[in-house]
Design brief:
With about 300 residues, this protein is mainly beta. Helices cover about 10% and strands about 35% of the residues. The chain has a 13-stranded antiparallel beta sheet. The chain is globular, with a radius of gyration of 19 Å.
Length: about 300
C-alpha cells in the first residue's frame, strides 16, 4: 500500500536539522564535497581533533557529527595487549545542541579504558565553547565465536528498480524502496544507499560512512504511523540520541539496504530501530534513534 502522504509531506525537519538535500541539489553552498575529506579530522594534539562542517542551510547534519565523533575515537585506539587493533563495535551518542554549518567543531577524546580485548572512549564535541554532542564508543579486538544474524527483509526490489531516494545527495546515492503496509515490521521504510565515489580500503572509514548514513530516515519513520494527523506539517522534529552496533565489516561504496521502523511514540518523543544489510544479505549494523516529535497544541 502506498503512503498517501508521501508526495506532499514536508521535507524539512521543523526546529531541527534538515535532511540532506535531494539529488540535483548540492549538499553545501560551496558545491560538491568529497565524503572522505568531509569525514577526515585534523589532529590538534592531546587527543583533540577538528572536524570540518561544510556550509549549508539549517544546522550541521547529525550524521557528520556521529562520523566525526567515531573518527576521533578511532584515532586514539592502538594495538591491544593481544596484538591486534580493536575496531569499533558500538557507539552511543546524545545530540545536545545544533551545530552551526560552515564552522569547525572540536572533538575531545577521553581514554576511559584500554583492556586486553576491549577499549572504551568518551567523546565530547564542542563548537565555539558550546557542547553540541557527547558519545561513548566501545572497541573490540576480533575474535572467533558462534555466528548468526537476522535475515535481510524479503521481497525487496533491486536498487536498479527503485526510484531516486528522498535523502540522495552529491555524496550518497539513495534509492527508496516503495512503501507498503503489511510488512513484517509495521510502518517499516526501506532504502538502498551507497557512496557516489569509491572509498579507500579502510574499514575505519567504512564505519564512519555507515554511521553517517544511519542518521537518515529515523525521524521520518517515527511520524509514519501518524500520517494524516492534523498539525503534522507544523511538527518539531529533531534527533535526540543515536546508537549503532557494528556487526560485520562491509564496503558502503557498494549497495546497502536500510530498514527502519518506529517502535513507540509518546510524551513528545518517538523511537525507531533500523538494520543495515549488504546487497547479498549480510547484516552489517543495527541502530536506534530517539527523536523529538512535538505537535503544537493549536495545530491539531
Amino acid at each position: 500500500m502506498t503512503d498517501p502522504n508521501e508526495t506532499d509531506e514536508p521535507t524539512g525537519e521543523r526546529a531541527g536539522r534538515p535532511p540532506m538535500p535531494r539529488a540535483g541539489m548540492a549538499p553545501t553552498d560551496a558545491g560538491s564535497v568529497e565524503l572522505v575529506e568531509w569525514l577526515t579530522l585534523d589532529p590538534l594534539g592531546g587527543d583533540v581533533f577538528r572536524g570540518h562542517n561544510p556550509p549549508r542551510e539549517g544546522r550541521v547534519f547529525g550524521g557528520s557529527v556521529l562520523a566525526h565523533a567515531l573518527g576521533a575515537a578511532q584515532m586514539t585506539v592502538g594495538a591491544s595487549r593481544g596484538g591486534s587493533v580493536p575496531t569499533a563495535h558500538a557507539l552511543h551518542g546524545h545530540f545536545v545542541e545544533g551545530g552551526l554549518p560552515g564552522e569547525p567543531s572540536e572533538y575531545r577524546v577521553e581514554r576511559v579504558r584500554d583492556g586486553a580485548s576491549f577499549a572504551t572512549r568518551q567523546v565530547t564535541a564542542t563548537q565555539d565553547g558550546r557542547v553540541i554532542f557527547v558519545a561513548s564508543v566501545s572497541f573490540h579486538a576480533d575474535e572467533a565465536g558462534p555466528d548468526w544474524q537476522l535475515d535481510a527483509p524479503a521481497d525487496v526490489p533491486d536498487p536498479s528498480e527503485c526510484e531516486l531516494g528522498r535523502y540522495a545527495s552529491d555524496v550518497v546515492e539513495v534509492r527508496d524502496v516503495p512503501f507498503r503496509l503489511g510488512t513484517a515490521r509495521p510502518y517499516a521504510r526501506r532504502m538502498w544507499f551507497r557512496t557516489r565515489r569509491p572509498l579507500p580500503d579502510d574499514p575505519a572509514m567504512w564505519q564512519r560512512v555507515i554511521v553517517f548514513a544511519s542518521d537518515h530516515g529515523s525521524t521520518r519513520a517515527v511520524r509514519t504511523p501518524h500520517r494524516g494527523l492534523p498539525g503534522l506539517a507544523q511538527r518539531q522534529s529533531v534527533s535526540l540520541d543515536h546508537a549503532i552496533w557494528f556487526h560485520r565489516p562491509a564496503r558502503p561504496d557498494e549497495w546497502m539496504l536500510t530498514e527502519v521502523a518506529p517502535i513507540s511514540t509518546g510524551n513528545g518523543r518517538g523511537l525507531a530501530t533500523g538494520t543495515i544489510h549488504t546487497r547479498t544479505g549480510t547484516l552489517v549494523a543495527t541502530f536506534t534513534q530517539e527523536a523529538l516529535f512535538r505537535i503544537p497544541p493549536d495545530a491539531t
